[in-house]
Amino acid sequence: MQDTEIPRVLGHRGAAGYAPENTLASIRYAAQLGVKWIEIDARLTFDEVPVVFHDDRLGRTTNGRGSLSKKLLAEISELDAGAWFGSSFVRQRIPTLLDALEEIERLGLGLNLELKCSPGKEKETGRIMASVLQSFWSPKLPVPVVSSFKAAALSAFSEVAPNFKRALIVHRLPKDWLPIGQLLGVSAIHCDCRYLKHNQVRNIRQHGLAVRCFTVNQAEIAARLFSWGVTSVFSDFPDQINQSVKALGIPLE
Ligand code: G3P
Ligand code: MG
Questions:
Q1: Residue 12 designated active-site
Q2: Catalytic residue among 54, 171, 190, 198
């Protein structure tokens, strides 16, 4: 599968503007909106089970306290990950990566899996996520993109599952993005839209890589980024950004 088959707009953490991020409800909401691809974050519990969750700290989006990386899956599974967002989401759980993959397969979605790592656990995270994805990703679905801010996680991932597409995530594009990207064999750079410059997009695209931007929730920012040559954007409100992209006549890939 080519990068050009990845749509212009991906749902961020599922559809995080409408449902509690990184829950099954958020994944389902994205599908209901007609989104074709989603991004979700995954990290390891203390007993090294991949779960779908953004922060290391539990407090922002659950009724738990402390670090997810210091808790067992059994403890994590008890937590409410939906009530903070709204009463209709009470009893949403932190999904395991396997739960999420099953739901994604049922819904026929494309996936960008972002690897989140505790400090010092980059290699384990990459290896474990790769073996789960390799064993359980449905071959009927498009080949997923695996991304991370951590080069070591991507490198360990690629040793186990070299055929999956990889992307390096950056806030500010580092000067040495090209040799790092080449070493990791990435097909894209995922950039924070707050810091990205037009000439950087041009430069990355000239080297044959896709540029995907997070997190884009305003139509005018999406329009500017696409006019620069950005390939895709991640949005908490993917339906709204999709509509404005269509209105501007930017073809949806
Ligand atoms: O993967 C794109 C984006 O999600 C990276 O930042 O913090 O939202 O996971 P963050
Ligand atoms: Mg993310």
A1: yes
A2: 54
